[in-house]
Amino acid sequence: MTNPRSGCPINLTLETLGDRWSLIVIRDIMFGNRRHFRELLTGSDERIASNILADRLKRLVEAGLLTKADDPTHKQKAVYSLTERAIDLVPLLVQMGAWGRRHLPVTHEMSIRQELLEEGGPTLWDDFMDELRTLHLGAPPRGDSASVLERLTTAYRRALKQK
Amino acid sequence: MTNPRSGCPINLTLETLGDRWSLIVIRDIMFGNRRHFRELLTGSDERIASNILADRLKRLVEAGLLTKADDPTHKQKAVYSLTERAIDLVPLLVQMGAWGRRHLPVTHEMSIRQELLEEGGPTLWDDFMDELRTLHLGAPPRGDSASVLERLTTAYRRALKQK
DNA sequence: GCAACTGGTTGCATAATACAACCACATTGG
DNA sequence: CCAATGTGGTTGTATTATGCAACCAGTTGC
What we know:
The structure is a homodimer. Chain A is built from 8 helices and 2 strands. The first copy, chain A, is mainly alpha-helical. Chain A has 2 domains: about 1-80, Arc Repressor Mutant, subunit A, CATH 1.10.10.10; about 90-163, no CATH class. In chain A, strand 1 and strand 2 form a beta hairpin. Chain A is globular. At the A-B interface, helix 1, helix 2, helix 6 and helix 7 of A face helix 1, helix 2, helix 6 and helix 7 of B. The first copy, chain A, binds a DNA duplex through helix 3 and helix 4.
């Protein structure tokens, strides 16, 4: 953002993340733990195009929301990680999901994780954020009882099977 | 949204509001109490183009976020009002502003209202939402001590003068 | 009668997005 | 060694969205 339209917090957030794909990419890295290009390209229902994905990853790295690193297991593989700035989007993403669940035609299986996050409230969000810090920033694990991400993923997979 | 890309709550919210202008329009109606086309066109720093504004107003009405009504004082005037669905965006907008304030180069005078909303917490948001309901939906006033919108506006004007 | 105000529309240029095909290099299995 | 598959993308083209400036017809106040 070289020339922001204004210094309003809402506007600046919109200029950074206000498009149809950026938050989808972050959602998939955050909740799906997809760390590679191909996983992000083929993993989700929304079917992002490869050039758009490449562009968004580049922009998000430039905006300080992601970092890109080499994967030691494969010379061509790149690993994308969330930064603290992106982890700090958790409450915003939860609110987005909550509003969507209240007002838009969501499907059950895509809402189950959202439902759990809403029920858990800010305490659970904080646990989740801490977990993301160990997963993406290499922070020391806080030795929590059960992984939030695992709980979300298990519930999601169960809902998928029921379908 | 005739063909949603997926039934994910976050995605559906993004398909509804994920562009650079929709939430700016809602922000101005909500926090600036701008109810007419011209007020929305010329009132804010971001300088929206008239065709974009017209298009967004139309879409937001279609999406059930705004209603359009005739203004009795002027045959050509249209009054735009928030629906319950839009009022329900308050927590999301607060989170957006909070994130922007933490991570982006916001200006003081455009952050002051955001700051007050963050300090006030969910209790204040609820008061504000109730106030919006009386203002936009004609709900009976809840007889609150001081209008939240007034408090926000006063603080904003004071910050503007100091500049 | 006329200037200012009302909510827009129109035309054109540029930018973003979508879709499909393609690519060079790396790794794996036989 | 070789072929199949996996890797992160790029390229080309078509469509759609956005941005900008000019314009417009009806309404109101004086």
